[in-house]
């Protein structure tokens, strides 16, 4: 192919092969464009034809011509001098492009070798550390053995009890038929820790119990392994299973159902025990370190607060003072929503992922690796062909570029530490106070503008705005229940409700009077006869609607809307959140929740 540019010219020349060989050598040595080489070849053909027409032999002409290589250099130099400025600039640019392409290829090959040859070297076994902490809890402090025994005794539980939207009538019937199970659950709720073992593989005992409940068959491979077990999660912190959550949620439902039955039967002592047990389960979840467990704990605490308020409203005077004190003490001292959100496990999870994705140079830095990207893809369960990480071939080819685009280990860790500091401050901020810069907005900006720079952060960072809202809502519900109990105690002592809320007189913490939406005191209005009252927060729209509940009641309450956002909302949008968050008496459950 080297002579392709001058081939047609030589083929039509009629010259002998020795002369043609000289012309080829000259053109090959002259580093010119194809068109310029054709022009040089035509001139050399004319030169040799002219000599032959003068009667000279080809051999003599070749000898007279001299070294073809030296001649090629001289001819190329002369041709380049004749080029115009545009042509010279183009040729320089062309050479520059070739040089740049070569340089990029060398850099890519270097990055490719670095990407392919580097390998993570995890140095810390986070799963074992957590397992050792769980095992260090004294047996007498672990609630899980009792919960597990309760699970063994409820293998006949109907599938409807396992659904989130469970059949309440069926739950009450089942609770009534299993008093021994409820006693086990109450005993378990009194222990300080859940004590569920740290596992990255399914619990065979729970699998057997759930199979009996649902009538399914547990399939096992020939070697006894679980066919659904994902090896990618083995020994990783993100793979730790929380199978106890569903079981304990079921136990809380049974307690709530039994409390409802107890009130119907006038057994207030049992109602108090069931409610204390629900609050105990919520507190156990609150002491856990995963966000999902803390959220579940808040949900159970919210359920407990609701049944307390409903019972006092429906049956005033049914409880004696000692029982009311027990309820009040339980809600004040075991309120999981009052404790700061624990993000320590989120940090450990991040650190565990970093050590499995990056190399470690021993000084806190390192780079991404091929095996690390594959691990990240598998653990995060990317799939469906929706992006670069889904295709192994694209990951293979684009991987070296990630060493340039994606932050190295030190930069990533520093950025994560910076974000976690701001998030910790944000989570400790009173709910009614707005931060100068909302962390979720910053994370969203990072997700859209820097997701390739910090993919691990944008993937693992939880949505803390929702977390903070759920904590505030739960706390408001619990405070509402505490005040309902304290006000009932006052009515029983004095014969009527107080005219105003005074923490000292009601024997409640001062912060129990705070409206989480505004930071001011909850609105309290006593009826003219002093035998009834309304207690409410201003709700999402932050204005006083005189105790008229918002559409959908308490379940419709969502995030607090800042005043600046309220001003920008349309009348239709504001109508959806119009009304107050009435804590007592509870609005009718038939009020629809707005879409």
Note down, in words, how this protein is organized:
The chain is an all-alpha fold and 595 residues long. The chain folds into 4 domains: 2-82, no CATH class; 126-220 and 227-333, no CATH class; 344-462, no CATH class; 479-584, no CATH class. The protein is built from 25 helices and 3 strands. A 3-stranded antiparallel sheet has the order 1-2-3, covered by helices on one side. A hairpin with a 6-residue loop joins strand 1 and strand 2 (533-537). The model is unreliable at 382-387 and 590-595 (pLDDT under 50).
Largest beta-sheet characterization: 3 strands, antiparallel
Give helix % range.
55-70%
Number of strand elements: 3
Mean pLDDT over all positions: 86
Shape: elongated
Strand order of the largest sheet: 1-2-3
Q: Stretches where pLDDT falls below 50 for ≥5 residues?
A: 382-387, 590-595
- Taken as a percent bin, the fraction of beta residues is under 5%
The tally of helices reads: 25
**Rg measurement, Å:** 39 Å
| Class derived from helix and strand content | mainly alpha
Q: What is the count of structural domains?
A: 4
End-to-end gap: 72 Å
How would the blueprint of this fold be written?
Elements: H1 7-11, H2 17-29, H3 34-53, H4 58-65, H5 68-82, H6 85-117, H7 126-136, H8 144-152, H9 168-177, H10 179-189, H11 204-214, H12 244-264, H13 268-287, H14 291-314, H15 321-333, H16 344-357, H17 370-380, H18 392-405, H19 409-428, H20 439-449, H21 455-460, H22 464-494, H23 503-506, E1 523-526, E2 533-537, H24 563-568, H25 571-576, E3 581-584
Antiparallel strand pairs: 1-2, 2-3
Helix pairs in contact: 2-3, 2-5, 6-18, 8-10, 8-12, 9-12, 10-13, 12-13, 12-14, 13-14, 13-15, 14-22, 15-22
């Amino acid at each position: 192919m080297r002579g392709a540019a001058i081939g047609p010219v030589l083929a039509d020349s009629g010259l002998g092969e020795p002369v043609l060989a000289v012309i080829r050598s000259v053109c090959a040595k002259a580093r010119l464009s194809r068109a310029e080489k054709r022009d040089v070849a035509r001139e050399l053909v004319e030169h040799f034809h002219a000599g032959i027409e003068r009667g000279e032999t080809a051999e003599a002409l070749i000898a007279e011509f001299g070294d073809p290589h030296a001649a090629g250099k001289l001819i190329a130099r002369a041709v380049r001098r004749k080029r115009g400025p545009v042509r010279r600039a183009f040729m320089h640019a062309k050479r520059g492009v070739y040089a740049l392409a070569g340089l990029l290829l060398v850099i890519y090959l270097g990055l490719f070798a670095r990407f392919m040859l580097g390998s993570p070297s995890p140095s810390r076994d986070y799963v074992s550390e957590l397992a050792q902490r769980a095992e260090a809890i004294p047996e007498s402090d672990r609630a899980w053995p009792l919960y597990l025994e309760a699970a063994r005794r409820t293998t006949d539980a109907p599938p409807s009890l396992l659904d989130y939207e469970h059949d309440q009538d069926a739950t009450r019937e089942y609770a009534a038929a299993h008093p021994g199970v409820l006693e086990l659950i109450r005993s378990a709720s009194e222990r300080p820790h859940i004590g569920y073992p740290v596992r990255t593989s399914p619990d065979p005992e729970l699998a057997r119990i759930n199979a009996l409940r649902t009538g399914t068959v547990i399939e096992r491979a020939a070697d006894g392994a679980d066919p659904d077990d994902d090896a990618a999660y083995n020994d990783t912190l993100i793979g730790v299973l929380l199978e106890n959550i569903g079981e304990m949620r079921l136990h809380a439902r049974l307690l709530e159902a039994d409390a409802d039955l107890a009130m119907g039967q006038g057994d207030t002592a049992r109602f108090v025990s069931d409610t204390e047990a629900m609050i105990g389960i919520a507190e156990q979840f609150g002491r856990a370190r995963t966000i999902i467990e803390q959220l579940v704990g808040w949900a159970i605490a919210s359920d407990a607060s609701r049944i307390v308020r409903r019972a006092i409203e429906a049956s005033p005077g049914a409880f004696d003072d000692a029982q009311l004190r027990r309820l009040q003490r339980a809600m004040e001292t075991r309120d999981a929503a009052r404790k700061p959100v624990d993000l320590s496990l989120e940090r450990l999870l991040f650190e565990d992922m970093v050590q499995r994705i990056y190399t470690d140079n021993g000084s806190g830095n390192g780079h991404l690796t091929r095996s690390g990207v594959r691990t990240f893809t598998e653990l995060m369960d990317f799939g469906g062909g929706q992006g670069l990480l889904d295709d192994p071939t694209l990951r293979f080819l684009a991987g070296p570029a990630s060493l340039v685009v994606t932050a190295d280990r030190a930069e990533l860790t520093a950025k994560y530490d910076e974000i976690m500091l701001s998030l910790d401050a944000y989570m400790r901020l009173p709910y009614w106070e707005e931060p100068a810069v909302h962390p979720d907005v910053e994370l969203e900006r990072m997700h859209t503008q820097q997701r390739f720079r910090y993919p691990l952060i944008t993937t693992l960072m939880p949505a803390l705005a929702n977390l903070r809202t759920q904590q505030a809502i739960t706390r408001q519900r619990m405070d509402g229940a505490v005040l309902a109990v304290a006000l009932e105690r006052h009515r029983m002592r004095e014969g009527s409700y107080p005219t105003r809320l005074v923490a000292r007189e009601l024997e409640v913490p001062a912060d129990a009077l705070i409206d989480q939406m505004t930071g001011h005191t909850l609105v309290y209005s006593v009826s003219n006869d002093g035998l009834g009252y309304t207690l409410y927060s201003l709700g999402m729209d932050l204005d006083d609607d005189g105790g008229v509940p918002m559409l959908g009641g308490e379940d419709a309450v969502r995030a607090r809307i800042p005043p600046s956002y309220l001003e920008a909302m349309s009348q239709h949008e504001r109508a959806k959140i119009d009304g107050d968050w009435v804590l007592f008496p509870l609005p009718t459950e038939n009020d629809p929740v707005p879409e």
